[in-house]
Write a structure and sequence with these properties.
The chain has 13 helices and 8 strands. The longest helix has 14 residues. It binds S-adenosylmethionine.
Length: 291
């Protein structure tokens, strides 16, 4: 199913590729940098699931979608698609003003939906029918019923949920794009901190990143597998058709074998030839002493 919201860096275009590679032996799924949750909403539910993000407005929105979908939709019913309202709300959310949770969630959802490319800062000047989102909000609420929603920094979250049977999916702010998430203050040094946390893990991890020399170098380590891939670049596509964005998948287990397992167990792709092609096309750029 789809997420109820778009989000900067959302993994809509890569979600099939990511689900294909998720470790199937782990029954605890933890999405560390949740954002729009495109992978969580797309994957089959696990026995135990956690959604986390360090952005408090985003996490409040998730909790209201899960626990109060009717009240949230009621609050959203009379929103105006207006530049004046957009800037008023943006400013209000930045002040320390006390706003009840459901109203705060409605405000935040409104600026996600009405900003340019969901970047939250610029009014998008696009027609938007808020009522069309209501069925999607109810579906998301149902899907989230047994999902734990956390608002922690990644290091703390990992220390709480790390077990041998946990699979962490991580989609951090991309190298040199940290500024897109100004509310949480991810820094260049945090890429190294994340790598240090992941190297100490008892469980399994799958990490998606932008393909750049700094990240390749950071993860060229024993027991780590790195694959390169591409996805369509949604924003650039408006100006240049077929524009691709190079990405990396980094894991501490063999994602190639997971791919084969997915195909055999759940028959993910209908056509056998499509499956074989998809697996053959994979470009493994680093793999040394895998388990
Ligand atoms: C690339 S986005 C994730 C997109 C998501 N995978 C999706 O499909 O929509 C990265 C997310 O990391 C969150 N974030 C940034 N710093 C964080 C931190 N220290 N701990 C946890 N989350 C953080 C941001 O708020 C942002 O939502």
């Amino acid at each position: 199913m789809n997420s109820f919201m778009s989000w900067v860096g959302g993994k809509k275009a890569l979600r099939d590729a990511i689900c294909l590679r998720l470790n199937k032996n782990c029954d605890r799924y933890v999405e560390v940098f949740g954002g729009g949750g495109w992978v969580l909403f797309h994957k089959n539910p696990s026995k135990f699931e956690v959604y986390n993000d360090f952005n408090p407005n985003l996490v409040n929105l998730y909790r209201c979608v899960r626990d109060h979908p009717a009240e949230l939709c009621e609050e959203l019913k009379y929103t105006l698609n207006s530049r004046v309202d957009f800037h008023f709300i943006r400013k209000t959310l930045k002040t320390k003003t006390e706003i009840p949770d459901i109203k705060r969630a409605a405000y935040f959802y409104q600026i996600i939906r009405q900003s340019y490319a969901s970047r939250l800062d610029t009014y998008g000047v696009l027609p938007h029918d808020m009522w069309r989102n209501f069925p999607v909000i109810y579906q998301a609420s149902k899907r989230l019923q047994s999902v734990v929603v956390e608002n922690l920094d990644f290091e703390k979250l990992v220390s709480i949920y790390d077990r041998p049977n946990t699979i962490f999916y991580l989609d951090p702010p991309y190298y040199t794009s940290e500024r897109y998430y100004e509310d949480v203050g991810f820094t260049t040094e945090d890429h190294q901190r994340l790598c240090d946390v992941l190297m100490r893990l008892k469980g399994r991890f799958l990490l998606s990143y932008n393909d750049c020399p700094e990240i390749r170098q950071l993860y060229c380590k024993t027991g780590i597998m790195i694959e390169s891939t591409t996805r369509l670049n949604n924003i650039a596509l408006k100006y240049e058709s077929g524009s691709q964005y190079p990405e990396l998948f980094i894991s501490n287990y063999n994602t190639y074998e997971e791919g084969l397992l997915s195909v055999r167990q759940i028959n993910l792709f209908e056509d056998e030839k499509d499956t074989e092609r998809l697996l053959k096309e994979r470009k493994i750029i680093w793999k040394e002493t895998m388990n």
